[in-house]
Amino acid sequence: MTRTLVLGPSLGTSADACWGACAALLRDEFDVVAWELPGHGTDRGPAPHRLTIADLATHVLDLVEGPFLYAGDSVGGLVGLQLLLDAPERVTGAVLCCTGAKIGDDELWRERVAQVRATGTASLVTATADRWFGEGFVEREPVRASALLAALRDADDQGYVAVCGAIADFDVRGRLAEITTPVVAVAGAEDPTAPPAVLAQVADGVRHGRLVVLDGVGHQAPAEQPEEVARIIQELAKELAEESA
Questions:
Q1: Spatial distance between the Cα atoms of 73 and 37, rounded to a whole number of angstroms
Q2: Percent of the chain with pLDDT over 70
Q3: Residue 17's pLDDT is what?
Q4: Residue 1: what pLDDT?
Q5: Which of the residues in the chain have pLDDT under 50?
Q6: Which among 98, 99, 97, 64 is positioned nearest to 232, based on CA atoms?
Q7: Count of alpha carbons within 13 Å of 194, Cβ hemisphere only?
Q8: How far is CA 7 from the centre of its chain?
Q9: CA–CA distance, 94 with 170 (Å, rounded to integer)
Q10: 8 Å CB contact between 130 and 8
């Protein structure tokens, strides 16, 4: 029986740039559904001026029928947490990468929004390369790195700002214990945005969680180590199948 796997991208990327290499390793086993953030990737509709993580979670639920396995990176991971809280009957398990129950603080997001409103997402590219990738990734995988940075450059400014607002408002640190679905929290050892301690908080806070730390990885685990992230997803799917047998 074909199983559905839903993939959520990180802020400033497209679904393909973030998850394409990993998804290619999983399509034989899963019916893969990758969704876009407003104004990102192939989504070129009018961007909302106000957005919440709950809005994005509702969008995901509308995209697919029945239960699904979920994996998300960064804001895609926040959406995964929202889904686990709002619709636990729909999500069989979740792999949440480079994310947290709360990411950053108000000052960080205010500054990011102000920069994009003043000079656009293209102005973020140079600094983002240092923040997104583990040491040596750009040299090892220049095509993959370029695709991610191009997606940031091409993202709609209003869409990017709206997602920043959604991230700034999201904080479920006090609700993690409500999540009973199995969760694998995947941290990049070199991620300054969502360091391993933030992912450990998720893994420790939910009822059935575990932490995996990937050496040499920054904030884009599915693109930086697609084989390893695919293996983690496959392993979780296997465990869930054995439990339900």
A1: 12
A2: 99
A3: 98
A4: 42
A5: 1
A6: 97
A7: 32
A8: 8
A9: 18
A10: no
Amino acid at site 9: P
> How far is it, in rounded angstroms, from Cα 7 to Cα 95?
10
Residue 65 is predicted with a pLDDT of: 93
* Rounded Cα–Cα distance for residues 115 and 108 (Å): 11
Give me the residue label for tokens 């983690």.
232
CB contact at 8 A, 162 and 47: yes
Of all residues in the chain, what percent carry a pLDDT higher than 90? 95
- Sole residue written with tokens 């000079």: 119
In sequence order, which residues have a C-beta less than 8 Å from that of residue 188 and are 6 or more positions away?
Answer: 97, 98, 134, 194, 196, 213, 214, 217, 218, 219, 220, 221, 224
Distance CA 53, CA 142 (A): 31
Residue type, 85: L
Q: Can you list the domains of the chain with their CATH numbers?
A: 3-244 (3.40.50.1820)
What order of strands is seen across the sheet that includes strand 209-214? 30-34, 3-8, 68-73, 91-97, 183-188, 209-214
Helices 15-24 and 226-244, interaxial angle, to 10°?
70
H-only helix segments in the chain = 15-24, 53-63, 75-86, 106-119, 125-132, 137-140, 142-154, 157-169, 196-205, 221-224, 226-244
pLDDT digits (tens, 9 = 90+) for 173-221: 999 999 999 999 999 999 999 999 999 999 999 999 999 999 999 999 9
Calculate the alpha carbon distances from 143 to 21, 32, 137 in Å.
Answer: 11, 23, 10
Per the prediction, the chain carries an average pLDDT of: 96
